Amino acid sequence: MILLETLNFSPIKPDVGLLLWTSIIFGLFWLLVGKFAFGPIRDALKKRSTDIQDALDQAEKAKEEMANMKAENEKILGEARAERALIMKEAKETKEEIIKEARNTANAEANKILANAKVEINNQKKSAINEVKNMTGQMAIEIAEKVLRKDLSGNTEQNSLVDNLVNELNLN
Amino acid sequence: MIRKISLSIILFLFSVVLAFAQQNKDHSGHNHAKGDHSGHTHAKGDHSGHNHAKGDHSGHNHAKGDHSGHNHAKGDHSGHNHAKGGHSGSHDAHANACGYVFDNSVFNPGKVAFHHISDQNIYSIGPWHFPLPCIPYAVGKGFDFFSSSKFAADSHGNATKAYNGYVVYEGAIRRVRNADAFPKGSVDLGHHNVYTETEKDSKGKDKAVVVACYNGQKFQFDDKSTADFGLFGGGFTSFYDFSITKNVFTMILICLLLGMLFIGIARKYKNNPGKAPSGTQGFMETMFVFIQDEVCKPFLGHKWEKYTPFLMCLFFFILALNLFGQIPFFGGSNVTGNLAVTAVLAVFAFFVVNFSGNGDYWKHIFWMPGIPAWVKVIVTPVEFIGLFIKPITLMLRLFGNITAGHMVIVIFVGLIFIFGENGANAGAAWGTSIASVALTLFMMAIELLVAFLQAFVFTILVASYIGAATEEHHAH
After folding, report:
1. Is residue A44 less than 8 Å (CB to CB) from chain B?
2. A13 within a domain of the structure (yes/no)
3. Which of A30, A118, A139, B399 gives B342 a disulfide partner, CB atoms 3.0 to 4.6 angstroms apart?
């Protein structure tokens, strides 16, 4: 009796009503919760993970771009430096050239002025010599006149007179 | 903290087991020695419960107020041959009008275990019975619709009243065979008048049959129809039960709760796009992503999105019902440990797998490429049988694991009654309860693991079958 009741094991006997109800309930659960909950949750999670991946990718890309930009900046800077050096060099050369030219011009001018001065000096000298020649002539004439006019008494006096005259001449 | 929690769980379980023991002790023999005769009010001349007033009382001369032979209050059992002997305790074991002796003094752990894991038409939480809608369909008679409270079932789930030819025995609805002879409407049967007897089935084997004693006459009752085709002792009978049983009620409840939970979470994702998950959403997301990444994606490849909702439904449906079945003293709904439920899940899986099957899949079943023709002759039937073996193993694995876990727990608790001699030996009951609590606690921990594991295993196997059915073979 007890054994028979023990054998009356109902969970293993699939009850028709329970089969039907389980089918309906699980079917509805799949249809409704699957459609309105699990589907949207799956999509939301997928979207979020794609968003996160995109954000990471973008960050990586931005980093790369930054690196590229830096390299470019470096390059531009290098170019600028080189250009500056070139400009400086050119400027120096120009400066030196200008200085050289100026010096040459100045030298030439100076030489010219010198030459002019020499010519002038020579001219002046010539005219001065001429004047001296003229004056010496005149003075010789005057001295001769005075000598002639005065009565020369002695030799000594004669000599001292000549000496005086010569000194006067030298002084001139 | 954890130590505190586990200590309080142990104490809780201990008190629960003791309360259970106390309750069962009260049932054994119904304590008539204490003068509590509810349901057995012989002294008042109301014999509805035992049918003594009407008809044939041979051997029980109860004629109106003469209770000399039934003086239970005094513990005098001399007038009653209980055919058991040695039960000097307080149990009430006299034969009813049909000669049936109700005897609750022997504890039958197997029966208790099966009773506790069976589907029922009454939802019992501890001593309280909550009625459920009964919707039986009698072949040729049509549907009935009434509440199971009509049966006024006792603490064992046995009817004290019949309704429209239906009773409950061990909580399950049965229909009278000789419906024309049995009165319609509500019929008072009284206590212990619905029980089982042995009969010979068509093959001459002994079979238990539910009988009810009414008016001194025995009526045999049919069990509800089951779709096992007689394989497990069931089969199609005179009626089908489409009631909202305990399992159906639990499934509806769980599906509503899960639906509310997950639709709420889905709404949260929709309303807070780009925000980090919080609260329940975060907790559930962990599980969702676990199944998605460990089950759906590895097995289904680029088709994972299509099958994710189905696999999630399977996982959370099974998991929630597994866990709900483990809440102690909350009705103990054994839903996923019922073959009907696991069969339906397996059938869903079967259809999803085979409707997704591509040409390659069918070719591999019916004409496996790359092997000699004579081997194909052997392989094809094996593959074909395999089509059905797969869902059958799914069905049996979940059913077996959950049922076994529940039964082991009931039997561990039952040890108290076995060693305590069903209340007679209080010292042994106390002693055993210590070991029983420890074993039950251990088993519950294992069952908690099994609840997750079996839900996961079911899902991952379905995913692998779908994966095999949709796989694209390139070369061999």
Report:
1. yes
2. no
3. B399
